[in-house]
Each structure stands twice: as C-alpha cells, then as structure tokens.
C-alpha cells in the first residue's frame, strides 16, 4: 500500500528549477532512499513534502489525501515528521526539553499535557540511546549525538512517515553503523521512511528501493543494486564512490 506519493512535483526558485516533475511513491513500512549530487534537489523534495515550501506545481498525496501546500504544523499533526540537514536544536534548552517540544507539536500533540510530553520525550530518548544526555544542554552535544537528538525530535512527534535528511553526515564508521541500526529499529515500529544520504554504506544497508535525482530530475529508480549499476547514475553521481559501493 502506498502511504506517501509525489506526483510531478516541481519547485522553481526564481529562474532556477530545483526540482522538475518528480514522481515517487513510498510504500507502507518501506525505507526509500533518495540520492544524488550536491544541489540535485533532495532537500527541496523534503521541504515540499513537509510544507516548508509549497511546490510550484505537482501534488503531494498522504494516505490518499492531497496535502499539497498545507502548512508544516498541519502536516506534522497529520503524521509526517522530518529532520533538518543543518541540525537545529533549541540551544538554551536541555536535550529532554528539545524532544518534549517535538512531542507537543506532533501527531497527537494536541492531547498531550506538558507532563505527558516529557514522558514521551524520555521514552524517545531511551529508544534512540540518548537517555544519559537528557539533562545536558543541546548545544553541548557532539555531532553524532546532535544527529540522534534531531532524529528523536522527529520521532517524538509520533509520525507514520519520517523524512531523514542526511542524519549520518559527519559520522565515523562505527557511528554510521549505529545510525543504520536505529533507522531499521524505527521501521520496525511501523514507520515508513524516506532517507536522503550520501553515505553509501548506509544506503546499501537500509534501503528497500532508491531513486536518484540529478539537476532536479529523477534519472533512475529501483533496488539499490539496480540503481548502483545504472550507467547514468555512475556517470552523474557515483564516480569515485563507485568502488566503495561495489565492495
Ligand atoms: N530557498 C531557496 N532559495 C533559492 N534557491 C534554493 C533554495 N533552496 C534550495 N535552492 C537551490 O535549489 C537547488 C537544490 O538544492 P537542495 O538543497 O534541494 O539540494 P540537495 O540535493 O539537498 O543538495 P545537498 O546534497 O548539498 O544537500 C540548489 O541549486 C539550491 O541552491
Ligand atoms: Mg540537502
């Protein structure tokens, strides 16, 4: 069953067509990868789904309902949450407080008291392995923990679909492997996932399917193996990464 769908989604910034008529489908319980070179339009796709920018044209459909152009808080409440490529913790607040804010703004946030939001935050911190950091200030965390906090904020919203934007950038190999485990654990909760990542080791280990953007246009889609052996993808994107992929 398809849970999230983009139909011909297009975004123009002034004269620049950042994303051009992209179709994609995310199935219930699936992990769909989105890869492509810098500036290909990947984050813009997440921004269009999450309501940060309305698409210039095209439709975004969530559980059969047209959500195109809805405000971010509405889309959050409907059950789609996201992380930010440039992590944005509330700097003066503790890790627990940061995640509580996520809980308050999430799918069931309306019914949550402050106490319940804190409880949800603690459960989420446990889930992502950040419990020990709960009372630390968010701006004291290292990169790996900040990325985890970013994931926790999105998870605390209780989403059905989550959009991860480069949650592994800047991590070392062992941190990447832990992040891969966490993403698989998120899927095991029944959450469907769109994941943007440059880290091929992660793409290979988490994605059921992948689609590739280049200059805003979808140039390939399929299983990871299919996409990684596609000549156009190798030429446009993989280049020297190719060796890392096939080993
Ligand atoms: N708010 C904006 N205003 C104007 N141009 C923008 C805006 N956001 C993105 N762009 C442009 O749209 C294009 C796609 O950007 P986007 O951030 O979606 O790429 P990306 O694939 O996420 O790249 P990266 O891998 O570097 O994160 C780029 O040329 C970028 O400069
Ligand atoms: Mg990006």
Structure at a glance:
It contains ten helices and ten strands. The chain is α/β, with parallel strands linked by helices.
The CATH class designation of the largest domain is: Alpha Beta
Number of domains: 2
CATH architecture descriptor name of the largest domain: 3-Layer(aba) Sandwich
Bound molecules: adenosine-5'-triphosphate, magnesium ion
- Helix fraction, binned, reads 25-40%
Main features:
four-stranded antiparallel beta sheet, 247 residues, 25% strand, Rossmann fold, binds magnesium ion, 10 helices, binds adenosine-5'-triphosphate, alpha/beta
SSE inventory with pairings:
Elements: E1 2-13, E2 16-27, E3 31-35, H1 42-50, E4 57-62, E5 65-66, H2 72-78, E6 80-82, H3 95-104, H4 114-128, H5 143-155, E7 161-165, H6 173-188, E8 192-196, H7 200-206, E9 209-214, E10 217-222, H8 224-228, H9 231-238, H10 241-246
Parallel strand pairs: 3-8, 3-9, 6-7, 7-8
Antiparallel strand pairs: 1-2, 1-4, 4-5, 9-10
Helix pairs in contact: 3-4, 3-5, 4-5, 6-7
Bound molecules: adenosine-5'-triphosphate and magnesium ion.
Magnesium ion binds near residues 42 and 85.
Task: Describe the protein.
The protein contains ten helices and ten strands. It has helices at 42-50, 72-78, 95-104, 114-128, 143-155, 173-188, 200-206, 224-228, 231-238, 241-246; strands spanning 2-13, 16-27, 31-35, 57-62, 65-66, 80-82, 161-165, 192-196, 209-214, 217-222. The strands form two sheets. Strands 6-7-8-3-9-10 form a six-stranded mixed sheet, sandwiched between helices. A four-stranded antiparallel sheet has the order 2-1-4-5, covered by helices on one side. The mean pLDDT is 93. The structure holds adenosine-5'-triphosphate and magnesium ion (MG). Magnesium ion binds next to helix 1.
